Backbone:
């Protein structure tokens, strides 16, 4: 299979420097845009034809998102890059930023030109020091070559690109919370509408795109929207990066065409389950995605097919659990994360998440009651869909998913008043410190 985003870094001797990127054909797409005088409307149409969908989680069509920006050239517009990768198990954007920052940067310049923005902010998760340093260096290299700054390639188009470190709050991966944080306020989601395309950063029209999404743009410009659309399946076009982790022999980031199955990703690329164990559960798209089981191995990595099967592709983090994993313990750990990361704006989420964690904790530690199971379901129903952002749906997904497929394990904990797994010994055997 032809790789797109990982092709450069797979080449021997490739570095994040601009000289390496140019040697691999980098910035040819940007030069093509200006030398062939491709208009913003033509660029938007090209991206629409490609079928490229957002790689951050929601999967919204990128070209359509761009087309919502008002055409009035007198309006100030912004492009914001969501590099706040904070979902447990997700580490693909980090690799793109640290190993090949210029393909993202070239995508940023082309995308900003397409929507008429002259300022772009890259919002990077604060812990990613190396990524921020690498991007800062890349921006300066690009500036010296005339790819960023005033009058880019003598086109008359100006663009300044800034790196903005986040403080490490999960909610700032949500686009409106990211905008609030960029404005210097506490990162909390906004009510929508109005949507960022009309009222975004500082109240101006704004597009928020993910790192992986924008990294695809130079290749679409060079090879055409039809070429990109020919890869993948149905409405899920192109390749996608998946962060594979958990009980697999070869964890890591893998680039595969959308439409590849979970079985191919986990067993062909990931080498299968460590220590010869059986597969028990899969989180198919980050911590906020409902669990799958062995029966879902032949489901395709396809936005629609995964949704039809009851979950989502989300952030692209595929976490694998073997037959010796306690699913109550797994859901409890995810609930601990969501309880800690709730921004506190909405009462159902702010009060509900700690309550869910408290119930889960007592079940895991042999102090639960059978009626707790109905209480969990009732609480989840009073959180999902009742918050400003999708955080509410995210935090209940691990509980509802494990209750759906592994209810007997909850009942075992309550009936036997203990967890069947010794987690200290378990983590030691799979190499956790």
Residues:
């Amino acid at each position: 299979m032809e790789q797109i985003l990982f092709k450069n870094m797979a080449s021997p001797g490739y570095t994040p420097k601009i000289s390496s990127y140019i040697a691999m054909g980098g910035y040819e797409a940007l030069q093509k845009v200006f030398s062939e005088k491709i208009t913003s409307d033509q660029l938007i149409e090209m991206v629409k034809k490609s079928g490229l969908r957002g790689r951050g989680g929601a999967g919204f069509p990128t070209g359509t998102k761009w087309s919502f920006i008002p055409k009035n050239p007198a309006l100030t517009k912004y492009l914001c890059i969501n590099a706040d990768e904070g979902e447990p198990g997700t580490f693909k954007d980090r690799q793109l930023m640290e190993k090949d920052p210029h393909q993202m940067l070239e995508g940023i310049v082309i995308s900003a030109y397409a929507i008429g923005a002259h300022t772009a902010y890259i919002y990077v998760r604060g812990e990613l020091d190396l990524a921020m340093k690498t991007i800062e260096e890349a921006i300066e290299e690009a500036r010296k070559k005339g790819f960023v700054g005033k009058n880019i390639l003598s086109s008359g188009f100006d663009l300044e690109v800034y790196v903005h470190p986040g403080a490490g709050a999960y909610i700032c991966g949500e686009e409106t919370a990211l905008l609030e944080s960029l404005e210097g306020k506490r990162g909390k989601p906004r009510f929508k509408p109005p949507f960022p395309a009309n009222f975004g950063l500082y109240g101006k029209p704004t597009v928020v795109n993910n790192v992986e999404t924008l990294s695809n743009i130079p290749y679409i410009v060079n090879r055409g929207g039809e070429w990109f659309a020919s890869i993948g399946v149905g409405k899920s076009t192109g390749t996608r990066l998946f962060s594979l982790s958990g009980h697999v022999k070869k964890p890591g980031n893998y680039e595969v065409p959308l439409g590849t199955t979970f079985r191919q990703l986990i067993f062909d690329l990931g080498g299968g389950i460590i220590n010869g164990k059986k597969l028990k559960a899969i989180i198919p798209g980050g911590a906020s995605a409902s669990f799958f089981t062995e029966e879902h191995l032949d489901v395709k990595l396809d936005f629609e097919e995964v949704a039809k099967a009851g979950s989502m592709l989300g952030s692209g983090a595929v976490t694998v659990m073997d037959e010796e994993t306690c699913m109550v313990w797994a859901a409890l750990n995810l609930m601990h994360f969501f309880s800690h990361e709730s921004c506190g704006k909405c009462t159902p989420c702010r009060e509900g998440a700690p309550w869910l964690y408290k119930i889960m904790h007592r079940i895991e530690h042999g102090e639960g009651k059978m009626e707790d199971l109905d209480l969990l379901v009732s609480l989840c129903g009073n959180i999902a869909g009742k918050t400003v952002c999708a955080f509410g749906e995210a935090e209940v997904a691990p509980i509802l998913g494990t209750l759906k497929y592994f209810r007997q394990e909850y009942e075992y904990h309550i009936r036997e008043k203990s967890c069947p797994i010794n987690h200290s010994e378990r983590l030691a055997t799979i190499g956790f410190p």
